[in-house]
């Protein structure tokens, strides 16, 4: 009788051998299905990514007139090695009469001014209209000025100049010629914002053709240290969330991820990422669209948002026409970064796709942006209680940071 009792107890504790075998077969079947599904998904996505970059010849340039806006600080190396030549080539391909170049340089301590004087001379020989402003005002001059709008009380018991207020002011300087040109009846189709990046004319042409040329904004992907993408401050997915991971496939939003897998224009709420094309109309409307920072009173709550994100929140075309990131257009902040994201073979390896898909899933399943968003929301709510009638339409741009200008760049406080 003892063995029978022992066997019965074992069944009660662990289940019958038949049930144990059934569970094992189910687990094995699920594992096989998961592996098969992963293999098929990876092969499909890798094929889409690999074939998307195959281009037989240079795409035909758009018959568009471009207002090119850019600002520079200590960029001598990239200007002389790549940027100047790319802008000159752009003017030749689109035609000198179809391009205006607006550059603002701000107190560089290298020979950025000399490099831009060389660009100015080259554009002059081509007959390209331009406004290249070289400013002697340094960061130290800016932070030594009497406080005013754009300044904030910091935890260091000082009143300091906000980085974003400063950058918004400089970006708006690059747009100033639009006012005079508009009064002269000189019009453009697109504003092309260029950071200090390595890019080609083909990159620009591809960017302009994003989503068939219909968009409120079209952005490239930018890299400084691949495979990490660079502009985490301004990029928000279709749901308005920050990246789930800084490497491909980046996004939490299914809408953004699925478009990225297909190497199609990726719907996002905001992007900048090194190179941006936007229709000219909002910039010459009344009132004109311009860059801005959040209010000083809201920033005092230890919140900040990129001027390059807020402009999409303010752009009246964003809702109707959409903001897109074009994954086929990849630029770099140095030659090595550009080369890394333009390899001879596939941009992404099978191994990378496999591991990245599962990393993205696990990050989405195990983390949430809700806590960060709750902090931002509560601070905005308290600010609105103290500032009746004021609103911030770019809530999705805001993060729990305070950034101020420094003599050698900027700092978190």
UniProtKB/TrEMBL annotation:
Keywords: Membrane, Transmembrane, Transmembrane helix. The chain crosses the membrane at residues 26-45. InterPro entries: Mannosyltransferase_CMT1. This is Polysaccharide export protein. It comes from Aspergillus sclerotiicarbonarius (strain CBS 121057 / IBT 28362). The lineage of its organism: Eukaryota, Fungi, Dikarya, Ascomycota, Pezizomycotina.
């Amino acid at each position: 009788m003892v063995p029978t009792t022992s066997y019965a107890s074992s069944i009660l504790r662990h289940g019958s051998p038949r049930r144990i075998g059934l569970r094992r077969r189910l687990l094995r079947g699920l594992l096989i299905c998961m592996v098969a599904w992963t293999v098929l998904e990876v092969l499909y996505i890798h094929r889409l990514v690999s074939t998307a970059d195959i281009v037989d010849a240079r795409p035909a340039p758009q018959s568009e007139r471009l207002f090119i806006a850019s600002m520079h600080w200590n960029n001598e190396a990239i200007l002389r090695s790549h940027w100047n030549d790319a802008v000159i080539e752009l003017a030749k391909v689109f035609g000198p009469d179809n391009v205006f170049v607006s550059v603002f340089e701000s107190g560089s301590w290298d020979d950025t001014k000399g490099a831009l004087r060389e660009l100015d001379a080259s554009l002059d020989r081509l007959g390209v209209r331009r406004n290249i402003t070289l400013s002697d005002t340094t960061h130290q001059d800016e932070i030594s000025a009497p406080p005013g709008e754009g300044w904030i009380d910091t935890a260091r018991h000082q009143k300091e100049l906000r980085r974003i207020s400063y950058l918004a002011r400089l970006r708006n300087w690059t747009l100033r010629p639009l006012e005079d040109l508009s009064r002269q009846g000189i019009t453009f189709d697109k504003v092309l914002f260029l950071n200090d990046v390595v890019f080609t004319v083909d990159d620009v042409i591809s960017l302009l053709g994003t989503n068939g040329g219909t968009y409120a904004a079209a952005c490239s992907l930018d890299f400084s240290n691949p495979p990490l993408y660079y502009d985490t401050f301004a990029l928000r997915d279709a749901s308005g969330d920050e990246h789930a991971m800084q490497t491909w496939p980046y996004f939490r939003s299914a809408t953004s991820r699925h478009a990225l897998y297909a190497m199609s224009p990726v719907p996002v709420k905001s992007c900048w990422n090194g190179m941006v094309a936007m229709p000219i109309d909002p910039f010459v409307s009344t009132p004109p669209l311009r860059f801005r920072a959040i209010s000083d009173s809201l920033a005092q709550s230890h919140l900040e948002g990129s001027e390059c994100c807020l402009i999409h929140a303010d752009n009246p075309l964003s809702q109707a026409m959409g903001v897109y990131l074009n994954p086929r257009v990849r630029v770099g902040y140095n030659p090595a970064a550009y080369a890394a994201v333009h390899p001879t073979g596939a941009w992404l390896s099978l191994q990378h796709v496999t591991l990245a898909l599962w990393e993205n899933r696990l990050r989405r399943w195990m983390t949430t942006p809700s806590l960060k968003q709750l902090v931002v929301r509560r601070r905005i709510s308290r600010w609105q209680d103290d500032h009746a009638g004021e609103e911030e339409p770019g809530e999705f741009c805001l993060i729990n940071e305070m950034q101020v200008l420094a003599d050698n760049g900027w700092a978190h406080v």
